[in-house]
Amino acid sequence: MLGKKIRQIRREKGMSLKEVAEKTGLTSSFLSQVERDLADPSITSMRKIAEALEVPIFYFLLNHEEHSPVVRRDQRKVLRFPQSHLTYELPSPDLNRKMEVMMARLEPGAASSDEPLSHPGEECIVVLEGCMDIDIGGEVYHLEEGDSIYYYAAVPHKLWNPGDKELVFLSAITPPLF
């Protein structure tokens, strides 16, 4: 299903596998395997593909249907990336807005990505449960429950859970990344 959506948007944009490979730094053969659902891309690879195709990353993971403005706790979209220790919940009804809000859960000892990533815009994170270390441009900040951080997302950043219990945080990003 994921591969089919990637292929569909690539074709709609009139791009070849080679063009996407050049923009992402991934190989054409790997991208072909992803499109045929023979390989699961990491979250880092998914971000590169989404950026190359100029779509939010969650575009590939959600059904595009009409939504009520109210999202009940038990009706949130829950997304898990292959080979990732992150689980995302979307408290916002859809992705066609100017701001994206997501709640994420990260296992103890796990990180958000292999390497610091950047994206356009600004981001605000509030730690709801557990603790977080976040590296923003080489400076590491430690946050506990109730703490928040606001930063320019164009600065490479990576977060991880240094604690022994699940990290739960709320993130607001503008413009939408996923």
From TrEMBL:
Residues 6-60 form the HTH cro/C1-type domain. GO terms for cellular component: cytosol. Pfam families: Cupin_2, HTH_3. SUPFAM superfamilies: lambda repressor-like DNA-binding domains, RmlC-like cupins. The keyword Oxidoreductase does not apply. InterPro entries: Cro/C1-type_HTH (IPR001387), Cupin_2 (IPR013096), Lambda_DNA-bd_dom_sf (IPR010982), RmlC-like_jellyroll (IPR014710), RmlC_Cupin_sf (IPR011051), TransReg_Diox_bact_type (IPR050807). Keywords: DNA-binding. GO terms for molecular function: DNA binding; DNA-binding transcription factor activity. It comes from the Bacteria. PANTHER family: HTH-TYPE TRANSCRIPTIONAL REGULATOR, METHYLPHOSPHONATE SYNTHASE. This is Transcriptional regulator, XRE family with cupin sensor. It comes from Thermanaeromonas toyohensis ToBE.
